[in-house]
Design a protein that fits this description.
Elements (H helix, E strand, L loop, with lengths): L1 H23 L20
Length: about 45
């Protein structure tokens, strides 16, 4: 019985976290990068 409650609680937490991320996702506009970002060279 505890395993079922634990699974249901975990699923509810994951669902609430995803719902919050989905609702909050479009609130901050993305900004353009104004300076070049250094990319490390790949050596083999």
């Amino acid at each position: 019985m505890r395993k079922g409650w634990l699974l249901a609680g975990s699923a509810a937490i994951v669902f609430l976290l995803l719902a919050y991320a989905w609702v909050d996702g479009g609130r901050e506009p993305l900004h353009t990068i104004s300076q070049p970002v250094p990319v490390p060279e790949m050596t083999q």
